[in-house]
Design brief:
The structure holds two protein chains of two kinds. Chain A has one domain. Helix content of chain A is 25%, strand content 16%. Chain A is an alpha/beta fold. Chain B is an alpha/beta fold. Chain B folds into three domains: 269 residues, Aldolase class I (TIM Barrel); 126 residues, Class I glutamine amidotransferase (GATase) domain (Rossmann fold), CATH 3.40.50; 86 residues, Golgi alpha-mannosidase II (Immunoglobulin-like, Sandwich), CATH 2.60.40. Helices cover 31% and strands 24% of the residues of chain B. A nine-stranded parallel sheet of chain B has the order 10-9-6-5-4-3-2-1-11. A six-stranded antiparallel sheet of chain B has the order 12-20-21-27-23-24, with helices on one face. In chain B, strands 14-13-15-16-18-17 form a six-stranded mixed sheet, with helices on both faces. In chain B, helix 1 packs across helix 3 and helix 11 packs across helix 13. The model of chain B has no long low-confidence stretch (mean pLDDT 93). The chains are: A alpha/beta, B alpha/beta. At the A-B interface, loops of A face loops of B.
């Protein structure tokens, strides 16, 4: 790493070494911005046998374990960003629904909606970026996995759906500034619903990720960036997708279109394993998560989508819920059998990306011996969003030791799924 | 011939000899094969729609063995005829056509079927036909074709095509890295059967496959896969099932009953074969073109994307009105004539979408395709000649609004749909086939352009049920199917 890349600080160094502490007691090397102590908040863990369990009662219990959220949602607009990876809904294993592998399960969404409705939410808006055209209905994406959309619509008094891959119902994008110290972007152009909500929920799936190692509540927020805002290439370079979001964010090859917030330093590191954890932390700083819900009842091991060779369906039987996304993801990582303070040399951040679907520069960086992603929860910790130090996080419900479902051994075939 | 429901009924000493050369079979299987033309096996046909057996007849084996085979088949065919069951002799390469014709004539076979492995099957079939005709025998000689283009071109009276085993597989399990939206890989013959549906009249098409080594549950899927668009699967027993049936084992008989129930379902709804394919998208097929592999892949992969289409023969383009279509895929026309250009240009200018290869003109050099406005409509011109079928099929999902396709189906990852309409256009039939080996226990939603009041679902497994229809904005009707075991057919009125 080099300082000339502009946004690398001493806290990065600590974070990457796995040594960062919850409250970083020193000042950043190149910044005079006071370091913010990373806060902590309890995280609730539950073992749940299946999606046919009483999830309303389960979420009610877990939210109570967290001290309750009634005061924060009563009379408010709640936005719920759902993890519907590859939101066409068509990517899945033969004979298994997307909700059992790559998507959050509709019963989780329905139960959460019902609980938030019971708590007095004025409006609950279900959000995900689904279609690469204006006017698409998020409900149609849900139908692609056989969801009972009407049941979810009726689970609370005012339930709305919005495809946030474009303007949606608004006439312009909302510009949300990064409230934590930004790494790469100072602000993002987002669908209005992410600004309009008073209380924001990230409903994520507990999964591995080809490029990021893991995808939990923080990573889930990548889907709030609208593809229709971040542009289409014209003309399209030979062999490239006409959609630029990946090239804007992952690789930093092209700048966002004019009128969209630009990078702080376009000369910073272009390696996606370096960029994406920071960028996602920025997104979490722009649209802070008020409630992180991680569906690990059933999932997929070995990647974020069913098309990744070696990926396999699994049933960890876990729900993890917290009010701080970094703390929640750290605990979720621990339940997956990973060290939440792992560095880029360790699982799950030592990654293998398919060489056919990634530019050569995105494979092994010159200064490394393998592909990597930096640890997103340590990035979040270093940005002051929350602590990733298990010693500082109170786990309520099922202790981690009793909850662990070792993803790595199952991925490698050493343990049965 | 139109009413024949075929089953491949290999057996006898010739079959045993052929199998022995391949190092199989042994024990019980060998016994079942060698004694398969015992009259008792005809009892399996009682109460079934099967009325045409394809029996082993000739191959490159010892003449004594062949003679014994002919004697067995002659007797078996006589008993079959008493049950109104037609018998066709399967001919493997290696024997003289005159001798085969003489034996077939003597056995009073209803026809001969040449295995697809014949090096020059078409010529051998001609010789066999001539030999039969020399004996005043007009029995058909049919070659199992590996390339469907040839029988389509020749308008064969009974095309038998070598198809694929219907299945759905995960790309990841095939070692293919796929994107998050990638669907399972489905092997299907629906497109193949419907590719023979080029006129308004139904004609039989048979789909042949090697003996099925899959699970017993695969058999009903094979029947449905060929039947949905009006074809027949030439039932082919794997050795385990054949042996079990020969020994009257309960599991085997249960599997056979499953096959029969699907055949009965198909036959009890034979009127569906007269329904016309539904679709606002025309795919032009150049039956005489030299690019049949690509042409077939358009038909196959676009069907897999659940885009309903109708096939137009290139030769009829100047006569067939394009009115009623909203889009035309003309990628199989590699070099359009002036007349074709005029027809397609007029279609686009009046509001249609024409998708064509680069020889149309103005092809891009650095993108897959370019969209060019033409009057009220547009052309989409691809860079590559011929355009890559997978790319075209994928792009068509983006290029065609649901208003154009008229049909949207949701939650069908391992399922293919086929829509057709009655002659008067008042009834629409949406058939669905689950290619997974397990029942699909998740809600399927179907949305159709138009107003339909009633929807009734028929399956081979249960009594018909009425489905609720929902009127949707912009003149759409929606209905949901709560679960699909294998084959479902919904009639809307």
């Amino acid at each position: 790493m080099n300082r000339e890349q502009g946004v690398v600080s001493r806290r990065d160094v600590l974070a990457l070494s796995g040594l960062a502490t919850g409250a970083l007691a020193f000042r950043g090397g190149q910044s005079s911005t006071p370091i913010i102590a990373a806060p902590t908040h309890p995280v609730a863990v539950a073992k749940v046998a299946g999606y046919d369990q009483d999830l309303v009662a389960q979420f009610t219990l877990m939210l109570d374990q967290l001290g309750g959220i009634g005061q924060r949602v009563r009379g408010k607009t709640v936005g719920m960003k759902l993890n519907l990876t590859g939101a066409s809904g068509k990517g899945r294993r033969v004979g298994i629904s997307a909700g059992q592998t790559t998507w959050v399960h509709p019963n989780v969404v329905g139960a959460l909606t019902a609980v938030l409705g019971k708590l007095g939410a004025k409006r609950i808006r279900l959000l995900e970026s689904a279609f690469r055209k204006d006017g698409g209905l998020l409900e149609d994406a849900m139908l692609q996995d056989g969801w009972d959309v009407e049941a979810i619509r009726n689970a609370a008094p005012a339930v709305e759906f919005e495809d946030t891959n474009g303007l949606g119902l608004a006439k312009k994008y909302s510009i949300l500034s990064v409230k934590s110290r930004p790494y790469i972007y100072p602000a993002f152009a987002l669908n209005h619903s992410y600004e309009d909500c008073d209380f924001f929920v990230s409903v994520a799936k507990m999964k591995n990720h080809e490029e990021m190692g893991i995808t939990l509540s923080m990573k889930n927020l990548f889907g709030i960036t609208p593809e229709l805002a971040y542009g289409l290439l014209d003309p399209v370079p030979a062999g490239a997708s006409k959609w630029t979001r990946e090239r804007v964010f992952h690789y930093g090859e092209v700048k966002p279109p004019a009128g969209i917030p630009q990078e702080i330093d376009f000369k910073s590191n272009r390696y996606e394993g370096w960029r994406m954890p920071r960028l996602l932390t920025d997104i979490c700083g722009a649209r802070p998560i008020d409630l992180a819900v991680i569906d690990g009842i059933e999932t997929i091991i070995g990647g974020e989508s069913t098309g990744i060779p070696g990926s396999k369906p699994a049933k960890p039987g876990l729900l993890v819920v917290g009010l701080n996304c970094v703390c929640t993801d750290a605990v979720a990582m621990a339940t997956m059998g990973y060290n939440p303070r792992a560095g880029r040399n360790e699982p799950p951040f030592r990654v293998y990306k398919n060489p056919h679907s990634h530019p050569p520069a995105q494979l092994i960086p010159p200064e490394e011996s393998h592909q990597y992603a930096d640890n997103i929860v340590l990035m979040g910790e270093a940005a002051g969003i929350g602590t990733a130090d298990l010693a500082k996080i109170e786990v309520r419900g099922v202790p981690i030791k009793e909850a662990v479902y070792d993803f790595e051994s199952r991925w490698k075939g050493q343990a049965p799924v | 011939m139109d009413r024949w429901v075929p089953a491949r009924w290999d057996g006898g000493p010739v079959e045993v000899t052929l199998r022995a050369r391949r190092g199989q079979p042994a024990g019980d299987t060998q016994e079942a094969l060698s004694r398969w033309y015992d009259p008792s096996t005809l009892s399996l046909l009682e109460g079934t729609p099967v009325n045409c057996l394809l029996v082993t007849f000739s191959a490159d084996v010892d003449p004594e063995i062949e003679k014994r085979q002919h004697e067995l088949v002659q007797n078996y065919a006589r008993l079959a005829r008493e049950r109104d069951v037609a018998v066709l002799g399967i001919v493997h390469p290696g024997r003289d056509p005159m001798a085969i014709a003489a034996a077939a004539d003597e056995a009073r076979l209803d026809g001969l079927v040449l295995e697809a492995r014949f090096a020059d099957g078409a010529r051998f079939a001609e010789k066999l036909r001539a030999a039969l005709q020399a004996r005043n025998n007009a029995a058909p000689v049919i070659l199992i074709e590996q390339d469907p283009a040839r029988p389509r071109r020749s308008a064969a009276i009974l095309p038998i095509i070598e198809g694929v085993r219907p299945s759905a597989r995960d790309l990841a399990d095939m070692g293919i890295r796929a994107g998050p939206s990638a669907e399972p890989w489905i092997e299907s013959n629906i497109w193949l059967v419907r590719s023979f549906r080029l006129g308004s009249d139904w004609r039989p098409v048979w789909i042949s496959q090697e003996s099925n080594p899959g699970s017993p549950g695969d058999y009903p899927r094979c029947v449905a896969d060929a039947s949905i668009a009006g074809g027949h699967w030439v039932i082919s027993l794997d050795d385990r099932l054949r042996t079990g049936l020969f020994r009257k084992e309960p599991d085997a008989l249960e599997t056979w009953r499953g096959v029969v129930s699907y055949l009965k379902f198909a036959e009890s709804h034979h009127e569906w074969r007269s329904f016309q394919p539904y679709g606002n998208v025309a795919i032009i097929l150049d039956a005489g073109g030299g690019n049949s592999e690509f042409a077939h892949e358009y038909l196959n992969l676009i069907a897999r994307r659940q885009i309903p289409y109708r096939i137009l023969l290139r030769s009829s383009l100047d006569r067939a009105p394009l009115a009623g279509f909203r889009a035309v895929l003309a990628a199989d026309i590699s070099l359009p004539t002036e007349a074709e250009r005029t027809i397609l240009r007029t279609f686009a200018e009046e509001g249609g979408l024409v998708i064509a290869g680069p020889r149309w003109g103005n092809a891009p050099t650095d993108t897959d395709y370019v969209s060019v406005t033409a009057g009220k409509g547009r052309f989409v011109i691809y860079k590559d000649e011929p355009p890559d079928p997978e790319t075209v099929a994928r792009d068509m999902l983006d290029l065609l609004e649901s208003e154009v396709t008229g049909l949207s189906v949701f939650n069908v990852p391992s399922i293919l749909t086929y829509a057709s309409t009655s002659d008067d256009g008042k009834r629409l039939l949406v058939q669905m086939l689950n290619y997974a080996t397990t029942p699909f226990k998740s809600k399927i939603t179907v949305r159709l352009k138009g107003a339909f009041k009633n929807a009734r679902m028929h399956t081979p497994d249960n009594a018909p049920v009425d489905l609720n229809t929902r009127r949707m904005p912009n003149d759409w009707t929606e209905f949901s199917v709560p679960m699909l075991a294998v084959w479902g057919a919904v009639i809307l009125e």
